[in-house]
Amino acid sequence: MDTAPEASSYTETLFLDPEFSAQYPVIDPDLGVKLIRDDSLEGFQRRNAVHRYLRTLVKTENSLLYRDLQNNTSTDGMYRYKIEEDNRLIHVLFSDMDRVENLDIYKPVGDAVRDIIVDQRRQEFDEYNDQRLTDTRISDDHIFRNPVFIGIQFFDVLVKEAFHQKVSWHVWLSYYETFTREICRNYEITEYSDPDASVPNDYSRLLNEMVGNMCDWMRMMQTEVVSRTSDTEACDVRLHAPEEATTSAARTSTNKDKSSVSSETASTEDETGDTDEFEKYLTIRGSYTGRDSASIPKMTGIILVSCNEEILTTSEIPDRFKRDITERILLTGVELRNHGEGSFPWEYSELVLANLEERLTGRRANSQYAEQLQDVYADIRDEVFIEEDVGVDFVDRLDELIGYP
User: Fold this and answer.
1) Cα gap 207→220, rounded to integer Å
2) What angle do CA 153, 158, 163 make, to 5 degrees?
3) How far apart (Å, rounded) are the C-alpha atoms in residues 296 and 280?
4) Residue 115: count of CB within 10 angstroms of its CB
5) Following DSSP, what letter does each residue of 199-249 receive, concatenated?
């Protein structure tokens, strides 16, 4: 090389070379970290090189991604992880959400995990129908060596950090829906499963993790509302109602005309005065069931119900597990509802009800789901009712939608 620019150009070309970038995790994981951090590199070549790097990390046991996620479980508050600089990959991935969007970092991880689940169908033995991840004799750290769990944990960190950085779009958390669908296609009770256990096999453990995370994401929104008010009674801050009430859940929420709320009454301001940002990422825009321009909490509510449908309509999944999953979702809904009509949490309970209605009697009606939910609900209704505050109508609405008694 005769000149520094020529040397620099050669280095960049090598850095972005497809075969070379795929070997970063083996040669030196920090090369991939540097590639992600270097915002001076432009274009699809950098994006594609980052994607190859992250896909390889997912598929390489004990890679830097696995180690960083295991080491990054400390929390900053109830629903946020501390993004430690020492965990250099996690820090470079999540400290700047513009980088997440520009590089689509969710895609290589989500696609790799989906492919791993699908690939189980080509195997003579599907290891996830065993109980290796649920065996109490094995340290729980063992789960951090599993690629599907790593993908699930990756999205939990991503979603929580994106929410707290006031990201107004959903960061493709709908990969949980994809994972759930593919898991349900693979799910079997084998001689290595325990159908009577609360967690019959490893697929059950992974489904449980995702539903638990999504319920936490809804509570994360609830906690954010409460934290911006002087007390829990004051969290009935109104938001813009959907522009089009396309479901009876939206239409019957009140006998009064509340199809819209003016921006003056729909806003709230915390001590820092960031009213606009607060509204931007908590307001439900469009219909309750529409995914266009969905925020993190809105997409979470939609996906929760979608995943519940997948689980309940999978015949191989034991009834006990179906009940437990559904109870967790409905208890989250009643917890939101207890905050009172017109509050942000209350509106999200409306969203959950609207999406249930959509899949029970609406445009996406599924008779098998309706039948299964009716059976499950009869067994868990009392547990949900106990958690409902006096005067709250969540169980009444469920009774009407599901057809109880």
Assistant:
1) 20
2) 130
3) 11
4) 14
5) S-SHHHHHHHHHHHHHHHHHHHHHHHHHHTSSSGGG-----PPPSS--SHH
Least confident of 12-16, 196-200, 379-383, 391-395: 12-16
Best CA proximity match to 77, nearest among 225, 227, 208, 230: 227
Residue from 102, 80, 84, 81 nearest 35 by CA: 102
The answer to whether the predicted template modeling score (pTM) of the entire model surpasses 0.85 is yes
Give 130-141 pLDDT, tens digit per residue.
999 987 666 677
Q: Name the token pair of 255.
A: 């006998």
Task: Tell me the per-residue pLDDT of 13-70, one tens digit each, with 9 for 90 and over.
Answer: 545 566 655 565 556 778 889 889 988 877 788 899 899 999 999 999 999 999 999 9
pLDDT of residue 27: 60
Cα 345 to Cα 353: distance, rounded to the nearest angstrom: 13
Here the tokens at position 295 are 């925020």
| Phi (first) and psi of residue 262, to 5 degrees | -65, 155
User: From the CB of residue 142, how many other CB atoms can be counted at a distance below 10 Å?
Assistant: 12
| DSSP for residue 105 | T
Residue 320: burial class (beta carbons within 10 Å; 0-12, 13-18, 19+):
middle
Residues 6+ apart with CB under 8 A from 125: none
User: What tokens does 213 get?
Assistant: 């995370």
CB contact at 8 A, 298 and 170: yes
Look up residue 354 and give its two tokens: 């609207």
Rounded CA separation 299/386 (Å):
28
Cβ-contact 144, 150 below 8 angstroms:
yes
